Structure formats: C-alpha cells, structure tokens
Amino acid sequence: MDSFSERQREILERVSGIGHLTIESCAQIYGVSPQTIRRDVNELCAAGALRRVHGGVELPQNENLQYTSRRMLNGAAKRAIGHAFAAHVPSGSSLAVSIGTTPEYAIQKLRHQSDLMVLTNNLNIALFACDQEGWSVRVPGGAVRAGDRDILGPQVEDFFGRYQVDFGVFGVGGVAEDGTLLDFSEDEVAARIAISRNCRRSVLLLDSTKFGRSAHVRGGHLSELDLVICDAALPEQHRAALEDISVDVVIAEAQP
C-alpha cells in the first residue's frame, strides 16, 4: 500500500468521500488520459482498496477498506483529532483502545505523556505503545486478523471487561442519521461496547466522513458518549441533540 502514488491516494480519498467516481471525470480532474486513470484504479482494485463498476470505481460493498488503505485516508483530519485528544489525557492515565486508524493516530499523539497503561486489541497500537518508555501494554489472546492486525471475538469482550480504565477510546465505521453508531461486523460492535461499559470516560474519535457512511451493524448511540472529537462541525441535528444532554463535543483544528 505504501507504493501507491500521490494521485492514487487522492483518487482513493475522493472515492471515500463521495462513494463513486467515473474514469472520465477522474481523467478530467487530473488532466490525463482515461487509460492512465484505468491503470491507477486497476492497481487500487487489485489491492482491495476499490471496486470496479461500469464506467468507474466505488468503495467495496458491505465491508470496510483494508487497514493500510484506511490509514492513508483523511490523514490531516485524523492528525487534528489526535492532537485534540491528547489534550484530554494526562500522564498516568489508563486507556482501553479499539481497532481503527483514527485511534492509532490518536495514541501516537500521546508520545509525550508518561506512565500510561494501554489495553488494546489493535496490534498496530500495541506495537507503537511498546516502544514508549514507561508505558505498559496489555492485549487479549486470540486469532489475529492479518489484514487489520487486530483481534476480535468473545475473548476480547471478556478481556476489556476485566478492567476499569480512565478512558475508553474508539472510532466507528459510520454514524446514521438518527445518531446510531455503525460498524462492519458484530464482533467490532461488541468489542467497542465492552470498552465503553468499562471506562470512566468514553471518547469517540470521529472524522466527518463517517456521517451518513453505510455500515450495517448497529451498536450504541452518540447520546451515550462522554466526549466526541471531530474534525468538522457535527450536522445540526446531532449538534443540537448532544448539547441538550451535555455530551462534550470538541472540533479539532487542522494541524500544520
């Protein structure tokens, strides 16, 4: 995935934002031939990042992008969210952290905090945390999903249930119009709920592309959270509803 060109990364980000892109429109955007764009998207499709449809490409149906593809998307937004998150986490804190690329960005922003305890089923986060002097790291047992480098299943829910931590930190696959939190599998939802139930402060890290994004497993609601950190203003219906019930919302400022 790291071998994708800058144009391929931009194509992936455009499709992630609008769901579909035609070959002709993409060729016009970049001022190149349709054949050149077809070569770009063929590589993206071969890597599982996109799916070919008649005349263009779209996101894979009913499933999430591969982790390394997701990590490339909306990097500026995720960095801003991570920076804002770090301001809420003092040294000496304990954190339960979910799968996902936005939580990974956020934990990396804590590198200057000391004496943290990190519980996570995201091995990308665990490996980073292991390199931080003075941090302690715990992970559950079980089979690793190779593409995502994470662990899911009932043992993960039991693992998070054995601790009470200061912060439960997670992202989501999407947010429905009614504020329901969505993900791509029941195991993902179950792990996130286990984190939320066993923390003193639940934190949703949410890049704004997740509003209205299609994911098919329901679990949790914006109103059940303590803190939402997003890179852009929430849609009005969500903002007003969360204000009424005093859920804290932080809009992260873009970082240089």
Automatic annotation (TrEMBL):
HTH deoR-type domain mapped to chain residues: 4-59
Magnesium found in the keyword field: no
Keyword Transcription regulation among UniProt keywords: yes
PROSITE patterns: HTH_DEOR_1 (PS00894), HTH_DEOR_2 (PS51000)
Source superkingdom: Bacteria
Keywords (A to Z) from UniProt: DNA-binding, Repressor, Transcription, Transcription regulation
One Pfam family it belongs to: HTH_DeoR
GO molecular function annotation: DNA binding
InterPro entries xref list: Carb_Metab_HTH_regulators, DeoR-like_C, DeoR_HTH, NagB/RpiA_transferase-like, Tscrpt_reg_HTH_DeoR_CS, WH_DNA-bd_sf
Protein name: DeoR/GlpR family DNA-binding transcription regulator
